[in-house]
Amino acid sequence: MALLPSILSSEQVELRRWSPEFAPSMLLAIEESITELRRWMPWAMEMPTEEGLSDVLEQGHVRFQADSDWEYALFEHSSDEVVGCAGIHRTEQPKRFEIGYWVRTSRTGLGVATSATRTLTAAVFEHIEEAEQVIIAMDRANAASASIPRKLGFELIGTEDREIVTEGHTGQGFVWALDRPKP
Fold first, then answer.
1. DSSP letter at 48?
2. Mean pLDDT score of the chain
């Protein structure tokens, strides 16, 4: 049994563990957002096919069960549409976990990523006993993404050199961290 629940709920979205059955609705969100996604996400350099996306979702499903990564599709409460994805990833430091996210273009600026990230951060500390810190990293130029950890009380702990793999990347990134709350 996986460490994290298959479904989490936030103020705006229900986070559902990746499943191949989500491919058609996720593809619609990606199609709408592909221009923005290409600026930041290496996987978006080419528009995925439904079959390819189904395979990726199946692999994510397996990694979730193996407790190596926990990826969720974000389903909007009001419409039940996929409005993005968010996940928790293990890092090279066993007590540190990283959160990543993207939001459908028509839902950016509405607090969706903030809501999902708040929920994932709480889930890490509630369900992963060894977790001492959650980080969020992004390119310096991704101002929208950088606003989220700030809103949630993460501290900017440094900058890092990053490989430039998309048109939006600058080669410099921010790393934000939040430590496990003291009992």
1. P
2. 96
